[in-house]
Amino acid sequence: MEIIVEVEGNLSVRINPECEEGHVIKLLHPTNNVFIPRYAKYKFKKYKIFFIEPYAFSNQQIESIEFPKNSSMLTFSSYCFQGTRLQKLQIPCDLSSLQDNWCADVYDLNDIDVSKKNIYFTYYENRYLIGKDSFLSKVQNKLHYARFDILDAPIPPFITILKHYSFGNHPQLRSITFSEDSELTTIQSFVIYNSPIQCLILPPKLSMIYKENFVKTPFLFDIRVSCHNGIYQVLDDRCLYRKSDKNSMNFDNFQLAPRDIERIEIQSFVTSISSYAFYQCNRLKEISFDCDSNLEVIYDFAFAFSSMQNNVVFPESLKDLRTGCLSDVLNVESFEFRANSISIANFSFNPVAWDALESLLYIAMPVLALLYIRDYMVTPGKKVMEFFIYVVLFIDIAYIVLQGLGVLDGELIQEGFRIVLPIIFVFAAAALFYEVRLCRDKITMAVLGSALLFTFFAGIGRSWYVSTGNYSVDIFNFGFCIFIFVQYGVVLVRAKAAYKRAREAKHMERELAENKIAMMVSQIQPHFLYNSISCIRELCLSNPEKAYDALAQLSHFLRGNMDSLSSSAPIPFTRELRHVKNYLALEQLRFEELLQVDYQLEITEFYIPALTLQPLVENAVRYGIRRKTGGGTVFISTREEKNNIVITVSDTGVGFDVKQKEMAGDDKTHIGMMNVRERLVRQCNGTMEVNSVPGEGTVVNIYIPKT
């Protein structure tokens, strides 16, 4: 079980009593300076705060985070300071873990104070926050973060890993350089993300650069690699290449292009282009591929937000285009694919099949539009629409058959369709105009009117094409937008009407249920009164004094319980119990020592439906005790279980065969019990269980859920 507590009046901390630890989860109120104490207190017990959870301080306007000298903090989690303007950060004595991306999108952080007792981290030369590669390591060889205002960053030679976002979002960063004796092997994700870096010099032992590093680096013009590096190399075109296999002789992976590149020819030895390789290359005008190119894969966002001014022809060897590799490319005239089959973002892509599908959709769209409009028409114009639907369907089928068999080129069929289309426009417009004139329904008028306008603008566009040879897309799109916006409005109106109908149906269903409950209660009220008055009538003949007492009891009963007789909502159990006691007092005046009552009440603070207990007690008296020679006892008890409150009414009467009573559904003496069972289900989701043994008695259990 986890508990949320407030610490220092401003921090929300998650407590885990089993592990006896606390995690900072969020800042409750805006503040510039945050102090995270050693403990969080809950119920006079202290829980050490070990962890800052992801996004705990995300987008908060905080300037500093401080800890006590004996802080228990162990971990800064991923994105815990994301989007903050943090200027000063303390690294407490026990902190041993900075999770990946802990400093993502942190701005202004220059002042880092590492506790002298901390053995895991150091603020090296007041520039770099460095740490150990593992808990057992003796060397601090990971660079976690560089101060925010750094300009040129010569990396210490003992550093082996540049961690995520270590130079990300640094607005003044110009260069990162390494010495020839550098031990660096890995540059992780987003290290130089969104920085104005201009020069990057890579060391001899570097073997891995994560793909997201070159996102938003528009000024990275100068890329150099140590001549002793066997994995990466910059060739004559100033671009960075990488070996896919360290044992290979070829640098077959195109890794990165300088952002000011204008023209490039991808050499034949290149088999893949890495993610973000040409990202934001805004000066790129022309890209071409060697005639015997072996390029197979272009990875995620490789050309995203680049600018190409000419037609780009991809080689026949290209098999795979990954997600977004050609997204948001500016100024390009066209992309041409010569391969027979290409996989796009893990989906198979066949250019020939795609052209056929595009043509098929072109001639199928009018069918769908005509079918939609036809459903709103009722005049003879509907027959005209149906005729043109058959015409278009015939053209579609002819296209599929002739193109599939290779008898006729699909382009010729499309040209024929373009000739027929103006005729369809003219007759469809006439039918729609006739329909709109006679229409009285507002929604139908809106749909047909917008269709008429669309037909009008499409006809203008087609006429423009016939007269000038140029198709005006703007005219067509204007009419299409009007049609779509009207359909959107129709959908909203119909959705609102459907919601209103659903609310009304739900309201009627609730009223029906309440009326049914009220009807059942009205059945019970005269039933009980009839039994009570019958008892008093019998006493008037046999014992007038007892009749007088019984009449007084009935007066108290009616005066105190009239609300229960008409209530359709659950009432306190104590009210129902008083009701039962008044009833039993009336019956005991008549039966005297033949009727004994035993109460065993462990719990009374709960609610039950009105007139739930009284009919059960009445049946116990009338059909159990009364029919048994020598009388008997009625037991009323309550107890509490894990999920239910159990009410038990039992008697030592004559009992009955439960199966026979269930089969005899027309037994009117038990109508009260049937009503009780149904009201229990409807009002409190309760259940009732009846057990009886002939000659021994009956036990009725009521189970009422606690919730």
What would the average pLDDT be, to the nearest integer? 82
Show unreliable segments.
Answer: none
Whole-angstrom Rg: 42 Å
What's the tally of helices?
Answer: 10
Shape summary = flat
Distance between the termini: 20 Å
Into which percentage range does the β-strand content fall?
15-25%
What is the number of E strands? 40
- Specify the helix fraction band: 25-40%
Q: What class would the helix/strand composition place it in? A: alpha/beta
Query: What strand order characterises the main sheet?
Result: 22-23-24-26-28-30-32-33
Sheet of most strands = 8 strands, mixed
Describe this structure in words.
The strands form 9 sheets. The protein has an 8-stranded mixed beta sheet with strand order 22-23-24-26-28-30-32-33. Strands 1, 2, 3, 5, 6, 8 and 10 form a 7-stranded mixed beta sheet that branches. A 6-stranded mixed beta sheet has the order 12-13-14-16-18-20, with no helix packed on it. It has 10 helices and 40 strands. Strand 1 and strand 2 form a beta hairpin. The longest helix is centred in the C-terminal third of the chain and has 70 residues. The two termini are 20 Å apart. Helix 5 runs antiparallel to helix 6, helix 5 runs antiparallel to helix 10 and helix 6 runs antiparallel to helix 7. By secondary structure, it is of the alpha/beta class.
